[in-house]
Structure formats: structure tokens, C-alpha cells
Amino acid sequence: MLSFLCFHSLLLPANLISILALKSVVNKLEEDTLLLVLGDHGMTKTGDHGGDSPEEVGAALFAYSPSQLWHKEEIHTQNTVSQIDLVPTVALLLGTPIPFSNLGKLIPDFFAFPSQELRSISRVPLEVKPLFNYVCALHRNVRQVKTYIETYHSQTGAFSTSLLTKSNMKYQEALTMLSRITQILESQVKITAEDINNLKKDLNETEKLFSSYLILVSNMCHEIWAQYDDFSIEIGFGIFSGMLFVSMLVLFGVPVRMPYLVLLQTLEGVCLWSSLPLFLLVLTLLIPASFILLKVSKMLQRLDPLPGRYQCIETDVLAVVLCCMHAVSLTSNSFVMSESYITSYFANSIMTFVFLWKVLKKKRSEPMLRRDRFRKNLKEWILFLLFLIASKSSQLFLSCREEQPWCDVSPFLKPLSSLRLSKSQFLNIRYLLSGACVFLPVIGLNRWFRKLGNHGVFFIRHFSLTYGLPLTAVCLWMNWALQAVPSSILDKLPAWQQTFLPRIAYLMIFGSLMSVLIDPVCARLLTEEEGRQIKEAVHVEPKTKAKDKLPSRKKRTTNSKYHKSEEGAQTDKSSAGSINARVPVVCGLGTVYSSNLLQVFISVFLLIALLLGDGLAPSLILMMVQMFTAVELKSLTDREENQKVPVVPVWLVALWSMMSMQYFFTTGHQATIPSIRFETAFIGYHGNYPSYLYWIPAVLIILNTFAAQVMFAVAVPFMFLWTLTRRNLEEGSMTDVPKGEMELQLDSDLFKKGLSHLVLYFVSFQALQLCGTMLSAALHRRHLMAWGIFAPRFIFEGVSFLVTLTALSLSCGFVLFTHRALGKWIDRHLNRPV
Q: Where is the composition biased (Basic and acidic residues) (predicted)?
């Protein structure tokens, strides 16, 4: 080590101290002590480690002892040993039983001298003593392996009967020879040189039989334990990546034709040339698969809401590149272990680039004074900084991996009961903060409905908004206070007292979701008297006075001239300010879609907050802040570009997908099995579940683990709706109220195409990350950390993809359900003769 360092190097003192420390350890070793220095893996010249190359699987093994380790006459010349061979070797050297499931073989050089049990045979010649000692120790090793294999086969029946018979024959033959050698050594008084030569031959033959037995058993186990179905892996990855590629081509407006698909599949077949059956299968399915992909691509092209080809935008290109970089980074174990920080970095990078690009673009197109430009961009700057602050603050809720010893557990992830004595002041602050985090969204939802007039007319909808959801927030807060009680006291309470509050919360959340399905049109048709008062106020009074005459809880109005009965409001075009007295007036019709979706979102938010606990409630608020800032910046861009039809840019969908992965980690989770919070299954339930209710704990654990994916999937339609909702919220004259979300009813086909386009974009970005985990798990299936890092990451991403698809289908299905119900409501109430 020192030979690579100059005497003026800053590393020289530290390395000298390390070498002197090792020297002091060696000098203090006693005669019966063995020092083993080894590495768990090797490294290539480029620094790669953990793979299956010869440089990575090889490592040095250094053994030292003050006493003699091996006999002058060497047993074997063995340059390499397996890591599993250390287990039986160290166990026998320590005098402890060999672990039951061991499959390793003893290292011969450490057994040249007899153990206490073998010293009873005192007539062993010096020439064969090292070999005899090793064979006796190896017999113990083989006997342990044989016991394990027989037990494993009796329980699973996994091994071939012929191979088991063959291995047993080898064992019996070796055991017979060892018994004969022992009898010869005990019976003969004088051993001649010829006898010594015969003993050497017999001992070598016995050692070969024992070694061949261990090799045969090891191969048997490798056939059933360490084999991968490469054919299925390549088929699955090829199909998934091919469909993802075709979907991205269609989304970006690239025409998909038959020659392109044939070329794509031919390239896949060439890449899989190493697997001849797979190559033949690809060639066989080439033409029919191309027809299928072509048909799918044509169906997808019908979803494009914009005519013509896709226009390449720099922000969209960068967002796609960053998402691809994140997917490729999943092939590195270091990146996977630090993914909780990397996803936040990628999300911030997308937002920063998009914001700066918009500012610079505006600066070039609108030359003005610096002061005026700053005032005009002040709102954008505030939203941008708010996004970055929320993203940075969310890292307070990260959990630690086992591979991160430097990481400290966040105090927000500790139970409240554990903070009573050590951090009582922080406990009070955290409890009050969690209460504010669950009450603020509920209060904001009620204010939204009161301001926009979306309470509807049905009692169940009004009850859920006014009493149900606030009661849910109260139950959550009181339940968290109950969790702060020490477990010794809490366990003494009756079971119903421990589960009463969560069950009430479950009931209220379920009632809120059902009320939206029962009354999906949260708008109110005013009576003729109320409508006449508003029309008179609009016609003769200023805007502020007209608003004061609106009925309570209904501050915004939309009259029927924006719907299918336009002719009733425009009978006299010469007087544009006059309003037909018989035209109905409706409150809240411009925000029906967003109001319904917002109530569903807040209901899901309360459910997720209940499952995550009080410590992670602020993280959910930060999630909502980042969602709002992203869609608000997008809506400001749409307003400046005068887009009448909402078009969701690619960068926003990519950012949405990246934030869903970011908040998977900032809600206290990691892609490891030990990080799963199984205690969530018992929130609201005490004791064991009956067999017919096993699905309930599974659903609760999945909702807890993939809370971020569920929240972002439910909120996906907001990316499409917020621009229209934002227009409806802007102040305007009472005679020209913005149509808002009623634009969607005017062009139903365009709405469905745009929503389908958005869903396909979001699913494609999620599939891109899944494709990255599939690639990493396939490439590193022989990696040292395959089962600790890559396999769990692939499993979590696969389940996350399925959860996202489910939540996204329900969310978009609900929006389409609202669209259909609103159309029927308009036909029933507004398209009547006037």
C-alpha cells in the first residue's frame, strides 16, 4: 500500500497508522489464535464490483497464526476456495457444529493436525497423518451435508432419485474405505513402507470420493436453486420494451408502418441470437406480431387530440431524457441505494429547466425593463421557489436502508409513544402539526364548494362535505393522540376503544366516496325567483353588488347560454346585455369535474393519512403543494399562449411520474422487504382476521406502501382539468362568465381523446421505469446484491405499476362517469323549451 504513496502524500500518515495497527494485532495473537483476512468480493480496474466476472468474484484470503498451520508434507496445492467453504472450516476450527444448511467443503490446509477426538488413534504414521486428519474432518463435513440433503428431499422431493442414489453410492463407498483404513491402523503393530504407500493411495481415493460427493450434491442444488429461465426473461423484456417503444412513437406523432415494425423485431431477434430457440420463435412470429402491433398503433393514433405531427419542444425532450436516465440508473446498485435522493434531484431538474426556459423565452419575445419583467414574473418565481422548498422539505421524511449505516432515523417516523420522555416538546409540535395537516385540506374543500356553488341538492352529498369529512379529520387526530399513550397502558383498554376511531373514519370516507357516485352532478339549478334576482342584479347593478345577491354557498353562476340551449339566450342579438328571463341559472356548473375529483382526492388523502400515521401527514401536504405548483405553472403558460383547448405538455406528465416515485420514498418507504409496515394491517382491527377477510390487510398494506402512487394516479385528471378550472376562477364580468369545464361538454370527443392521451403518456412513463428495473434485474441476476437490491426493486416497481394502473383506471373512469352524468343532467334540466 505504501509503495504507491509518495512521502509528501497527505494519505501517508493515515496508512502508516493502519499498518502499525495491523502489526500490533499480529504481535498480540496467542498460539491458539488464527487470523483470517479476506474480502467479500473483488473489483475490476474500472472500479466495478459485485458482478460475475473473474475479477469481481475473486478475492484474497490471508491466514496467519503464531503456531504452525500445516504439516511440512503438504496435503494439496489448492490456490482457490469458495466462500461457502469458510463456513464448515471455521465451524470445525472453533469446535462448534457445522450449520445445518451448509454445502461448503473444508479447506484442507487448516486440518493437517488432528483434533482432540482423533488423537485416540496413536499409530498413524507421520507420513500419512496430515492426510488422514483431513479425511476424518472431511467425513464430518460430508455427513452433515448428507443429513441436510436427505431432510430437504423428504420435505420437497426436489432432487432426482437417480442422482440421489448415485451420491449415496459414492458416500457408502467412501465410508467403507475409511472404515477399512481405520481398522488397519488400529490392528497392525508395525507398519511397513509398502503399507504406508497403500494407505496413501486409499486415503487419496477416499478423499476423492468424499469430494466428488460434495461436488455432485452442489451441482444438484445449483440445478434447482440458481437457475434462471433466460428464455422467458428475454421474451418478457422484448415484448414489454417493444410495446413501450411503439407507444412512444405514436405519442410523439411518428407514423408507425409495417417495415418499421419488421425492422424492430428483426433487430430484437439479432440481439437474441445467443438463444437459438428464442431467435427462431421471433422469426416465426415476425409477420403476425407486426400486424398486431400495426393495428394497435392505428388504434393509439386515433387518441391523438392534436392534428398533424408532434412538434418537438426542448422542455419535453429534456424531460424524456431525464426519465430515461433515471431508468438506466436503476442498473447501478449505488444509484438504487441512493434513489430516494436521486428522484428528488431529477424532479427538481425538470422543474428548474422548464421554468428557466419559459422565463428566457419570454425575455426574448417580450423586451421590457427589468423591473417590469420581475413584477410580471413574480408569481411564477414564487411558485417555482415553493416547489423547490417543498421538495427539499420532503427529505425530512426519508427512511433509511440497511446499507446506509450513516443514516439517522427521522424523528417523524418514530412512534409518538417513543417520544414522550426524550422529546416531549417535539412531540407536542408534531402532534399539532399533524392536526393542522388533516384539517386544512378539509377546510379548503368546504371553502371551495361554498365559493363555487358545488354543494348540490342531495342531503348525502351536503352531509359528507359539511360533517362527514370534518368528523374524519377529528377521528384521525384523536386516534393519533391515543397512539401517544404508552403501549403498556394502551393494551389494557378494551379492543373496541382502540378500533372505534379508525372505524368511524373508514365509514365517513366510504360515505364520502359513495355520495359522489350517488350525486355526481354537484350543481344547483336555481328557482325562477332566485334566477330573476340575479339577472336583474347583473343587468342593472355593478359586479360586486350582483355577487352579493347570489344565494348562500353559491357565489359563482353559469347561465344556460353556454350549453345546448344557446338560442334561448340570443333571441335578440341587437341587445347583447339583455338576458332572457326564462333562461335557467345554474350554480357551480363550471367546476363540476374538478369539484367531484377534488372531493375524491381529499377522501383518499384522509385514508392515506390514517394509514401512514401522524408523522407523515406533513409529507402529504408537501406532496399536494408540489402538485399545485406544477399544474399552476402549466396553467399560467397556457394562459399566456392563449390555448383554448387544454393540452398537457410532456414535461408535466414526466414531472408527475417522477414526483410519484419521489414521494414513494418521502412517505417513509424504501424498496426493501423489511421496510414494509405490516402493522398497517391492524389499523381499525384488533386480533386475527378471519380467512374470508384476508384481503383487507393486503389492501391496507398496499395502500400504505404505495400511497404516493395512489395519490398521484388519482390526481392525474387535474393536469387536464386545471387549465379550465383556473379560467373559471378568474374574475370576469357577470354577463360574460367563463365557460370553465363546460368546454368539455361542448366537445365530448375531444375531451375523451385528450384524457386518453394523457393516461397513455403517464402509463408510458411509469412503464419506462418498470422497464429499467426489468433490465437491471435481468442483467444482474448473478450479482452479489441481486436479492438484496435489484430483485426487491423490480418487485416493488412491478406492484407499483399495477397499483398505479388500478388507481388511474378508477380515477379516469370516475371522471368519464361524471361527464356522462352531467350530459344527462343538462339534457334533462337545461335543454327544455324556454
A: 540-551
- Ordered DSSP codes for 793-815: HHHHHHHHHHHHHHHHHHHHHHH
CA-to-CA separations, 500 to 165, 413, 471, 503, 505, in angstroms, rounded: 62, 24, 13, 5, 9
> Would you list the DSSP string of 215-258?
HHHHHHHHHHHS---HHHHHHHHHHHHHHHHHHHHHHTT----H
Residues 6+ apart with CB under 8 A from 51: 57, 780, 782, 783, 784
CA distance 84 to 105: 7
Q: Identify the DSSP state of 320.
A: H
Residue 187: HSE in the Cβ half-sphere, 13 Å Cα cutoff: 7
Q: Which are the contacts of 437, defined by CB distance < 8 A and separation ≥ 6?
A: 609, 617, 618, 620, 621
**Of 67, 204, 49, which Cα lies nearest the Cα of 130?**
204
pTM, whole model, 2 decimals? 0.77
Distance CA 34, CA 455 (A): 79
CA dist., res. 356 & res. 604, Å (int):
34
pLDDT digits (tens, 9 = 90+) for 746-787: 778 888 888 888 888 899 999 999 999 998 888 888 777 888
Count CB atoms within 10 A of the CB of residue 486: 11
Decide if 238 contacts 273 (C-beta within 8 A): no
3-state SS, 581-617, equals: CCCCEEECHHHHHHHHHHHHHHHHHHHHHHHHCHHHH
Place of cell 505504501: 2
457 in Cβ contact with 387 (< 8 Å): no
Give first-to-last CA distance, the chain, whole Å.
Answer: 95
Question: Any alpha helices (H) in 453-591, and if so which ranges?
Answer: 459-463, 469-483, 487-490, 495-518, 528-540, 543-548
